[in-house]
Amino acid sequence: MTRKNRPNKGLTYAQAGVDIDAGDRTVDRITAHLRRTYGPRVLGRDGAFAGCFRLDYNERLFKRNYKDPVLIACTDGVGTKVLLAVQMGIHDTIGQDCVAMNVNDMIVQGAEPLFFLDYVGVHRVIPEQMEQIVKGVADGCQLAGCALIGGETAEMPDVYKPGDYDLAGFAVGVCELKRVIDGQRVEPGDIIIGLTSSGIHSNGYTLVRAILKHAKLNLDKVYPDLEDTRPLGRVLLEPTRIYARQVVSVLRSYKRKRPIGGMAHITGGGLPGNVNRALHSSVDAKIHKKAWQIPPLFKFLQRQGKVDEQEMFRVFNMGVGYTLIVRPHFTEAIMEKLRKAGEQPFVLGRITRGTGRVVLS
């Protein structure tokens, strides 16, 4: 008997709003994206109730054993940037944002990302859309050097409006106990190195959307002030940069010395609200606003929304996505390592005696 001719004996889950068949088709479409993130430490089979990941090796081929390992875990989402993705109908970048928001936090403590899991809550499962979301997650995991070992899709028509979805992620990494970075070794005279962002990243989009509405901006229009040939919507959906491989490679290059005293992922709160998290109560971070060129996108949004400069620095990264606090003697060597890894590092400021504040000048 075909589905079309099946007698109706009462309500079904699909009629209530949850399509199990669509969920099964989604799993079939995304399995290949998960597999391309796997390394030899991923165990188990597809479709298992939980993902398995081998923490350590004995094989000489890998030789990554930890003497005193500390697991470091993060969870985060991408906030209201998903509303912009829905509005634009572009779903293959938001997954990288989700990975970035987690692994960029994790590496601040000196961790190597190991594996990642995602959670997608949707009004209705559309397999093609779900594949695009998970493709973005897998792309992010490959950039971060971690495995996407599982996830969950929850179809909840009573919670989400038609077309809406939410995306969150969970990441686990590992660090040798004696090499965990907690900011306690930051000293006066240390140098603050900045790494460029790829735009707004994934914080402040509630204000961005308010600016769009206030200034009646068109997401499909190319604005010359942006100095970008893409429409405004595409510029705003530029995925968050992932700094994991670059930072981890620098950390690994120092087997005994520990020239990096603190790091910060510049998220909500901007430079003042994040660099301070890498400090202890006896030092300040003096950051020079003329040390880098603020990208045109931030200036454009500030003008269009008539936003005060202090508010801009409090909400957005303003072009600086990540910072490292390093010993003066190692500054140039670390910057050169970062350049070789594809970064464009610059000296952002210096650590002074103080009370744990960030001072912008």
Task: Describe the protein's architecture and organization.
31% of the residues lie in helices and 22% in strands. It is an alpha+beta fold. It has 2 domains: 8-179, PurM-like, N-terminal domain (60s Ribosomal Protein L30, Chain: A), CATH 3.30.1330; 191-360, PurM-like C-terminal domain (Phosphoribosyl-aminoimidazole Synthetase, Chain A, domain 2, Alpha-Beta Complex). The strands form 3 sheets. The protein has a 6-stranded mixed β-sheet with strand order 8-10-7-11-9-12, with helices on one face. A 4-stranded mixed β-sheet has the order 3-6-4-5, with helices on one face. α2 (20-35) packs parallel to α5 (127-144) and α4 (94-107) packs parallel to α5 (127-144). It is globular and about 75 Å long. The protein starts with 12 loop residues before the first helix and ends with a strand.
What's the number of structural domains?
2
Helix content: 25-40%
Query: Helix-strand pattern, N to C?
Result: HHEEEHHEHEEEHHHEEHHEHEE
Task: Write out the CATH superfamily name of the largest domain.
Answer: PurM-like, N-terminal domain
Q: Going across the biggest sheet, name each strand in turn.
A: 8-10-7-11-9-12
Number of strands: 12
